[in-house]
Design a protein that fits this description.
The protein is of the alpha/beta class. It is built from 12 helices and 12 strands. Strands 2-1-3-10-9-4-5-8-6-7 form a 10-stranded mixed β-sheet, with helices on both faces. It has a two-stranded parallel sheet with strand order 11-12. One of its GO terms (biological process) is L-leucine biosynthetic process.
Length: 363
Amino acid sequence: MKTITVLPGDGIGPEVTTSAVRVLRALFEKSGRDVQFIEKKIGGAAIDTFGTPLPQETIDQCHNSDAILLGAVGGPKWNAQSMNVRPEQGLLGIRKTMGLFANLRPVEAFDTLIDSSPIKRSFVEHVNFVIVRELTGGLYFGRPSERRGAHHEQVVDTLSYSKNEIERVVEKAFQLAMKRNKKLTSIDKANVLESSRMWRELVNQIAERYPEVTVSHQLVDSAAMQLITNPAQFDVLVTENMFGDILSDEASVITGSLGMMPSASLRSDKVGLYEPAHGSAPDIAGQGIANPLATILSAALLLRYSLDMDQEAAQIEKAVRNVLSQGYHTCDLQMEQPNNHIVNTAEITDLVINAVNENQTIA
C-alpha cells in the first residue's frame, strides 16, 4: 500500500488539498490502486496545536510516506511570532528534513486564460517551460547575523553552497531536459558572485555527460527581463534557491494567475512534496471560492514523479484543460469568452472529477 501524507496547513490550504485528495481518490478507485491518506499539521495550524510549525509527529509521518501533498502556510494571525516559530519555518524545515533539494515549477499557458495575462498574447501562447530551483541551500539556509536593538547598523546573511548541493540539482535538471526538448538554460550571477562562478563551472562539467542537451548561461537580471519579453524561448531553466524563488513567482503572471501554478519538490529517490505555488490567501479562507486547480495539478505531478502513474497524471492535466475550455473557472481567473461560468471550489473539483471519469484513456 502506498501512503500519501496530507499537510493542509493554513488559510485556503485545507480547502484546496481537500479538492486534490478528492480527485486522487477518484483516480485510485478507478485504477484499483491501494493508497491511504494520512493528515498531519504544519505551519500556523501546528503552532496553534503544538507550539511549533513542524512537530516531530509530522516529520515522522512524512519520512514514512511515498509522497507528501501540502496546501499553504502562514497568515497575519502568526505575524507576531518570532522568526524561528513562524509558519514558514515549517515549510523550510520539511524541505530540509526530507532532503527535497530540487523544486520543479512547470509554467504553461492555458489557451483560455491567455487573455487574462498582462503579457501580449503573441508572447505567451506557446509558453511551456519548467523552472528547476535548488531548494535546501543558499541564502535562505545561510547563517544570519544577530540583530540586537534598534541601533544595530549592520546585518549579514550568508550565501553558501557545497559542490554536492549544486551538482545534484543540476543533474536533475539535465535529466529533465533529456525527457523534454534537450534544451537547458542555467541562470546565475557569475559576473558578481563567487557562488555563481562555481555554479557555472559545475554546469559546464556536467554538460559533458549530456552532449545532446544544448546548454546556455544567462545572468539572472537578463533572465528576469527575458521571462517577460520572450518567455517562449525557454524549456528547462535551472538556478539557485533565491533566484528560483523570485523568477518562478515572476513567471506566474505568464499564466494569468498564480492559482494555476503547481510545483514538485524532489530528492534523488521517488519521494516528493507537492504543493501549489500560491500562498494561503487568508482573506478568502472558508468562503468556498478558492481556486484548487494548482493543487490538483500538483497532485498530477505527484502521480508522475512519486507513483509512476504517468497516464493518470496526464488524465488530470487533460481534465483541467477541458474544464477551462468549457468556460468554467473560479472567481480569481479572468476569461473573455461567451460561455463564461464562475463556479466555487467544490463545483470546479466536481467538474474535474467528471472530466477524468469521462476520459478513460488519453486521446
